[in-house]
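User: Fold this one for me? It's Morphogenic membrane protein MmpB.
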Amino acid sequence: MLWSDPPDEPPEELRHAQKRLRRLGLVMAVASMLTMVLVAGR
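Assistant: Here's what I get for Morphogenic membrane protein MmpB.
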């Protein structure tokens, strides 16, 4: 890799999108667990 090569970091927009997707995945996992607990509790 040369010193003049651009950095391999993703653009700012992509990093924000990845962060949002990660947060959405976590929320979906928690919501599905809560739904399973509520359905099993009936």
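One thing worth pointing out: The first helix runs from residue 12 to 41.
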